[in-house]
Structures are given as C-alpha cells and as structure tokens.
C-alpha cells in the first residue's frame, strides 16, 4: 500500500484489525485522522485511506472510485468455504473493468494448516473465470527463502502472481 501511495496513487485499504491499521500508519511515520461512518472506522492521511471493519460490510459506494485491486493476502487468508463468498462479494461491489492483481500461495495443503491457505491456479480459475480474464504473470518457487514455512513442514511452496481483468457487462 505504501509503495502505491508513494507513486502518487490514491489508496484504499480494508483491514479487519484496527490494531493492524494503526500499526501500519505508526510504522510509516504517519498520523491518520480517524472517524466512524456506518460500520467502518476510517483512518486516513492525504490520499491513503484504510477502512477498519468487516470486508463483507463493504458496498458499491465504498469502492465506487476503485480502478484496481491488489490482493496480497486476503484470498489466501480465508478457509476454502469462505473463498466463494469473498469472490462473489468482491466482484459484486467492484466497478466494471476493474483489474485485480492477485498473489496466491500453492503448496500441499495437507502439510500445513493455514492461514495462509493454499490456493491453486485451478481454484482461481474456478472462482473467477465467469467474471474475469485470468493471466498468470509469474510462478515462482519460494520455499527456499521462506524459512518459517520450511519449519512448518512444507516440502513445496509456489507463489503465483495473477492478473484478473473483470469483464464489462454487455
């Protein structure tokens, strides 16, 4: 988020934990203005906004100006039974033609209980193919540089970077 903000973009983050959101601002030497609207605590400084609350409480008005999404840790944080609900809700509230940069981890799920959970390309395809074009940008073996995952018993760990381009309704 910080990098996007430093590049001049207006950034909207959604975080369940108010502690994590406040820590983000503190770690980056920022003091946000805080206010409460509807079901969210709004923390903002200039063009960097974080909504603290439940993602599933977001509506189209909250994300009306969003043109791109960076999902670094949302989908992989959810257990399998919640991923369809997350995807349906995200696609429902986003404006048409929004691009999503999605990072996933793929590993033998039986070797480690999440989060983060393993999300395969097949699952991404199943979740998004009816609503978005799917392009696999990179696929990297990242186990060697992730000692904490080795300690948890993983034998393989692949990071996928995927570009999703949501369809414009006809």
Layout of helices and strands:
Blueprint: H1 2-6, E1 11-15, H2 18-27, E2 33-37, E3 40-45, E4 48-52, E5 68-71, H3 80-93, E6 99-106, H4 121-128, E7 132-141, H5 147-151, E8 158-166
Parallel strand pairs: 1-4, 5-6
Antiparallel strand pairs: 2-3, 3-4, 6-8, 7-8
Q: How would you portray this structure in words?
A:
The protein is of the alpha/beta class and 170 residues long. The chain folds into two domains: 1-56, no CATH class; 59-170, 3-Layer(aba) Sandwich (Rossmann fold), CATH 3.40.50. 25% of the residues lie in helices and 31% in strands. It has helices at residues 2-6, 18-27, 80-93, 121-128, 147-151, and strands at 11-15, 33-37, 40-45, 48-52, 68-71, 99-106, 132-141, 158-166. Strands 1-4-3-2 form a four-stranded mixed β-sheet. Strands 5-6-8-7 form a four-stranded mixed β-sheet, covered by helices on one side. A hairpin with a 2-residue loop joins β3 (40-45) and β4 (48-52). It is globular and about 45 Å long. The protein starts with a helix and ends with a strand. The model has no long low-confidence stretch (mean pLDDT 94).
């Amino acid at each position: 988020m910080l990098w996007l903000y430093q590049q001049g973009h207006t950034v909207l983050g959604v975080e369940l934990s108010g502690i994590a959101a406040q820590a983000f601002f503190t770690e980056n030497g920022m003091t946000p203005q805080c206010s409460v609207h509807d079901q969210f605590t709004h923390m903002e400084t200039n063009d960097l906004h974080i909504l603290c609350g439940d993602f599933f409480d977001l509506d189209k008005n909250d994300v009306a100006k969003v043109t791109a999404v960076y999902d670094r840790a949302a989908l992989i944080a959810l257990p399998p039974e919640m991923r369809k609900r997350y995807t349906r809700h995200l696609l429902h509230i986003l404006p048409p033609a929004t691009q999503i940069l999605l990072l996933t981890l793929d590993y033998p799920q039986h070797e480690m209980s999440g989060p983060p959970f393993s999300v395969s390309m097949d699952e991404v395809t199943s979740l998004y193919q009816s609503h978005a074009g799917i392009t696999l940008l990179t696929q990297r073996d990242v186990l060697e540089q992730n000692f904490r995952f080795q300690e948890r018993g993983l034998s393989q760990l692949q990071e996928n970077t995927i570009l999703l381009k949501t369809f414009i309704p006809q």
